[in-house]
């Protein structure tokens, strides 16, 4: 065990939450020699199964009310990203003056290689994957982790010696950092989101800006040239997918990505399309430029890269109608980019959890680009109000939405499922939502304008 693991040896540490981040943190702390307790308010079958696994590994686990009333005062508390500080679980520990850090901070304190951190409202996962693939193409032992799915603590726990970690970081993870210090910090974009958690847009923005908090003049920042950010200590590399912007370090001309005017890559050589993907590629290249990677090797490594599932993903073509799964679009900014990427006649399926923001800012775009909108979830009434007088329908389920879209769509149309908000009102996550959409499309008959149900049975508002 490395010497730096000793900093947690013998300490009483509590981990809040038994999701993948919490499980990874508990196992990492156990390896460090800490006395580990995991507390989770849940009592579901899944929670009980995870608790049994951890107990078998020698970790104390408390669930339900027992977790919320735990009398022990711990040396450190580790908060998983999805747990808010006003929950009974955290309030109980706070009353005992337990100091908190997040799983990301824990893993960083034990990490021995440089870190690239990537944040933004949209495009984080694609850019994290592209950056990882590019550095792997240069021969560096590189892995992606963080908000992308694999907790950073899981990678730090492995016996692999990494040359570099590329970490997708969310505002939730950045709320609880203290020493987290990426060698390269990339800020992709910013738009309204998570107003069900934050009291204001500024509070959400401030949480994200913490990615730069511990950087020095020796570090690097990767930012859009048009983004107005406070003074940043790190050396700056800028990018822009706006063809009228020639001042950025990385720019877009037609389909070509340029670095200081010199061609790096043509988008037609890749599986990626649209200005948003050009911006993702430029941010990834900028990370390579910061760390002096071989750009020709980076270019070669991503020619066969395919975008993540559920992000503007073509899942089928039935009777001349294209069906696109964009379930990962959990903000109006992501929805706007998806709408702009579709050429021709468009039917849009949107809606989901009420996250507190308005859809009026893209109403003119929607009315100009969308023939018909089908709305689901908690947000359907707010969206209908903001987009009036667009022809639209409100339905009770994704199944009904797909059925109605199949009835409405004619050959040459595109049906875009781009919710523009999160899934938690109806689904476990955007993956479950996207997979259901895929299955529903696969079940549609191959001919157009399905008549599997009577359209009059669907709740519709024109």
Number of strands: 20
Helix content: 25-40%
**Neighbour order of strands in the largest sheet:** 7-8-6-9-10-11
Please tell me the total number of domains: 3
Please give the CATH class of the largest domain: Alpha Beta
- What is CATH's topology name of the largest domain? UDP-N-acetylmuramoyl-L-alanine:D-glutamate ligase
* Number of H- or I-type helical stretches: 16
Low-confidence stretches are 450-457
* Beta-strand percentage range: 15-25%
Helix- and strand-based class? alpha/beta
Going by CATH, the homologous superfamily of the largest domain would be Mur-like, catalytic domain
CATH architecture of the largest domain: 3-Layer(aba) Sandwich
Please describe the biggest sheet, giving its number of strands, its sense, and whether it closes into a barrel: 6 strands, parallel
Which shape, going by the Cα principal axes? globular
Name the average pLDDT: 91
What distance lies between the first and last C-alpha atoms, to the nearest angstrom?
65 Å
Report the C-alpha radius of gyration, rounded.
23 Å
Topology diagram in text:
Layout: E1 12-16, H1 20-31, E2 35-40, H2 45-56, E3 60-63, H3 64-68, E4 76-79, H4 88-94, E5 100-102, H5 103-109, E6 115-119, H6 124-137, E7 142-146, H7 152-157, E8 164-168, H8 171-174, E9 184-187, H9 201-209, E10 220-224, E11 235-239, E12 250-253, E13 256-259, E14 262-266, H10 275-290, H11 295-301, E15 313-318, E16 321-325, H12 332-341, E17 346-350, H13 363-369, E18 372-375, H14 380-387, E19 392-394, H15 398-408, E20 414-417, H16 430-443
Parallel strand pairs: 1-2, 1-4, 2-3, 4-5, 6-8, 6-9, 7-8, 9-10, 10-11, 16-20, 17-18, 17-20, 18-19
Antiparallel strand pairs: 12-13, 13-14, 15-16
